[in-house]
Specification:
The complex is a heterotrimer of chains A (232), B (250) and C (169).
Chain A lengths: L39 E3 H26 L24 H9 L2 H18 L4 H5 L8 H21 L3 H16 L9 H7 L3 H22 L13
Chain B lengths: L4 H10 L2 H7 L7 H9 L10 E3 L5 H4 L2 H20 L8 H11 L4 H28 L8 H23 L4 H14 L6 H9 L6 H32 L8 H5 L1
Helix pairs in contact in B: 5-7, 6-7, 7-8, 8-9, 8-11, 9-10
Chain C lengths: L15 H4 L4 H28 L10 E5 L8 E5 L4 E5 L4 E5 L10 E3 L4 E3 L6 E2 L5 E3 L8 E6 L5 E9 L8
The chains are: A mainly alpha (232), B mainly alpha (250), C alpha+beta (169).
């Protein structure tokens, strides 16, 4: 680069002032820049037909169930009489279970807001995009960090006695810590776990907790939100 | 060439002036007319004209996004039909539920279908999100579409939740009581938001009317707009994420 | 409006962005944006005002609970229509809210356990409204209790009082 460049790079949007311009294609501006995309087929009829079939299958299944399974309808709403237990729709029962353990401002406001914010920012953090295995590099620093986070989290949960949150947390935390000590050639599951990145573990933990709370809230909670066994 | 009655009718229709004025293209047998079938159609033009063959595999999507959308279509149709027999008032709302069950022809079926599709849609949207996450579908250049998807998840939940109050039975009333009291724990703005949402301090006629308007007008409109953006961005972001083959072999 | 006629360039500045004068177009754009902002804000405020009802048809907050003689000593009486417990102890009367401070469910008085229980999330309270167990963040509030001129108990649900305050009859 001894020769002086003939052109200067600069920014400008005035076509009258700078009639000759260069377009710089950066990595992330357009997906069309990508090289290999594999074989392509026409959307019509390949996609449209498949979607039409999917729609028909769905409709048939829904109609078949709706013919025999009646939507519930209870007594007329009575503001003076709370049914026992009073349950939200099933997809909010996880939240209701959280509210059983945490103060409302934490369980009802803080945690849901954090979940939504966390979901939104997922694609804007490089750790989620690179997808490098958690224990592939800097193990010595990462391991105590992960252990510390898990212990702190469990300490908070134990302080609130949130047992139905603790159980799935312990399971997933056990998995993430165990995967550090796995070495190649211990079977396919071990290889799979060793290759998991951090976001995979976090999402798995989230799903495990959400699923446990929803199932517990739906089937294992009776009058006064006390623990019951659904088969009794 | 032997042709069926349907094909004959279609061929005949295709030659009419009315058909030509609507479609302005021949039968979709060449790549050109097949492209026109997509981008010459206002409803389909948000979709890409070509897709990667790999993205058609069942394991790539399980059609979860499509199912979520189809459920929304089913809910719109059944919902509009249910509106013909529904008064958002106390206690007419509950009486209308009884009417749907015992008086209106096929009323109970429509309500069952609407309720079932609503429950399944919440599950389908969640499953869709988790599936996209584990396939890495949120990665650039799909970041914004992921955010739109989170918006759609929230709209779906709000739609389901506002619909929950409309039958005005005990189940509805107490689920909404608990839910709206959570709102009042939001620092500073909690009580004003709850007052605005309910149109008062208690869950009464005002609240029912407001939930009805949210459920039948505002939230479906928001959903339609977000769905349009969501589909359109799939195309603009270069199609669905396709996994490289070497990843699968692992 | 003469900003474009009187250039105020500072010599020596390199950044073309910084030394650019405010043109008439820029100025008008700013004015238009500001006007849109004000109009948008105004529309939002007016809409929120419109959506907040000024007159509410809700149950009255003051009610007569009955004559003091209707309540035996050492009893908790649930007044269902008003969601209030009227408690009579040896010291006197007080009124406790029956609405759980957690998420607004109506609590139930369980005489066999001598406590008030919430069916939604399992909060438990004493007859004074103090929390024993569960997620409720606050004790049940006490409402003001007075005697009317004709000797009836009058509860005012808008006015909360200290737990130590009892009405002696």
């Amino acid at each position: 680069m001894s020769e002086k460049a003939k052109y200067e790079a600069g920014f400008g949007s005035d076509a009258l002032k700078d009639p000759q311009r260069i377009v710089f294609i950066t990595k992330k501006t357009s997906a069309k820049v990508k090289g290999d995309v594999g074989r392509q087929v026409m959307s019509f009829p390949h996609v449209i037909l498949r979607e039409a079939i999917a729609f028909q299958v769905l409709t048939i299944v829904l109609v078949a169930i709706a013919l025999f399974w009646d939507a519930p309808l209870e007594q007329l709403a009575n503001p003076l009489l709370t049914p026992n237990p009073a349950k939200a729709p099933w997809y909010f029962l996880g939240l209701q279970e959280l509210l059983h353990y945490f103060p409302p401002v934490v369980g009802g406001v803080l945690i849901p807001t954090l979940v939504v914010v966390a979901l939104i920012v997922i694609p804007y953090f490089n750790v989620n995009i690179e997808g490098a295995p958690l224990w592939a590099a800097r193990r010595g620093r990462r391991f105590p960090l992960v252990v510390g986070t898990v212990v702190a989290l469990l300490a908070i949960l134990v302080a609130y006695q949130a047992w139905t949150v603790i159980a799935p947390t312990v399971l997933v935390a056990g998995g993430v810590l165990l995967s550090n000590f796995l070495s190649p050639g211990q079977g396919r599951l071990a290889d799979f776990l060793r290759a998991r990145p951090l976001p995979w573990w976090v999402m798995t933990w989230f799903i495990a907790v959400a699923l446990t709370l929803t199932i517990v809230g739906t089937f294992f909670r009776g009058p006064g939100w006390s623990w019951i066994w659904p088969w009794r | 060439m032997a042709t069926t009655w349907t094909q004959q009718t279609l061929n005949h229709l295709r030659r009419t002036r009315a058909w030509k004025s609507i479609f302005r293209r021949g039968p979709a047998r060449t790549n050109r007319t097949r492209s026109l079938a997509i981008f010459g159609n206002i409803f389909l033009h948000v979709l890409p004209v070509k897709v990667r063959e790999k993205s058609l595999r069942l394991r790539a999507t399980y059609y979860l996004g499509s199912f979520s959308f189809f459920l929304f279509v089913v809910l719109t149709v059944t919902g509009v039909l249910l509106m013909f027999y529904y008064h958002p008032a106390v206690p007419e709302a509950y009486r209308d539920m009884k009417d749907l069950r015992f008086v209106v022809a096929n009323g109970v079926f429509l309500r069952n279908l609407h309720r079932l599709a609503a429950q399944v849609m919440v599950a389908a949207v969640f499953w869709h999100m988790f599936h996209v996450f584990f396939r890495g579908g949120y990665k650039p250049p799909h970041e914004f579409n992921w955010v739109v998807g989170v918006g759609l998840l929230l709209v779906t939940l709000f739609l389901s939740y506002t619909g929950y109050l409309l039958p005005w039975d005990q189940l509805a009333f107490w689920a909404i009581t608990v839910g709206t009291n959570i709102i009042s724990y939001v620092p500073i703005l909690g009580h004003p938001i709850r007052f605005l949402l309910l149109g008062g301090n208690i869950i009464g006629e005002n609240a029912l009317l407001r939930f009805y308007v949210l459920h039948c007008v505002i939230l479906p409109l928001a959903a339609v707009i977000l769905i349009a953006v969501h589909f359109w961005r799939i195309q603009k972001d270069g199609g669905l994420t396709v996994r490289e083959d070497h990843e699968r072999k692992g | 409006m003469s900003s474009s006629d009187t250039p105020s360039e500072k010599p020596g500045q390199q950044n073309p962005e910084a030394e650019a004068e405010v043109t008439r177009r820029d100025f008008l754009n700013e004015i238009a944006a500001a006007a849109l902002g004000v109009a948008g804000l105004g529309a939002t405020v007016v809409t929120i005002k419109y959506l907040s009802p000024n007159v509410l048809f809700e149950p009255p907050t003051q009610f007569r609970a009955g004559s003091p003689d209707d309540f035996p000593v050492n009893s908790v009486t649930f007044i269902r229509d008003q969601e209030v417990y009227v408690v009579r102890t040896l010291a006197g009367f007080y009124a406790v809210s029956a609405v759980c401070t957690h998420l607004g469910c109506i609590t139930q008085w369980k005489p066999e356990d001598d406590q008030i229980e919430c069916p939604c999330h399992g909060s438990k309270f004493t007859r004074e409204g103090t929390k024993i167990a569960g997620p409720a963040p606050r004790p049940l509030p006490h409402f003001a209790l007075r005697l009317t001129a004709d000797g009836q108990l009058l509860v005012d649900k808008l006015e909360t009082v200290k737990e130590t305050q009892v009405l002696k009859v």
